[in-house]
Amino acid sequence: MYLVTGATGGIGRRVVRLLRERDLSVRAFVRLTSRYGELEQRGAELFIGDLRQERDIQKACKGVQYIISTHGSGGDAQALDYRANIELIDQAKENGVEHFVFISVLGADRGYEDAPTFKAKRAVEKYLQSSGLNYTILRPAGLASNLIPLAEQFRQTGIYLLNGDAKNRTSIVSTDDLAQIAVDSVNLEGARNQIFPVGGPDVLKRQDIPRIFGRLFNKEPIVINPPLVVLDGLRNAIGFVNPQARKSLGTFRTLLANEFFCTADEIVNLELIFNLKLESLESFLQRYLGS
Ligand SMILES: NC(=O)c1ccc[n+]([C@@H]2O[C@H](COP(=O)([O-])OP(=O)(O)OC[C@H]3O[C@@H](n4cnc5c(N)ncnc54)[C@H](OP(=O)(O)O)[C@@H]3O)[C@@H](O)[C@H]2O)c1
Question: Which biological process, per GO, is one annotated for this protein (predicted)?
Answer without folding.
Answer: photosynthesis
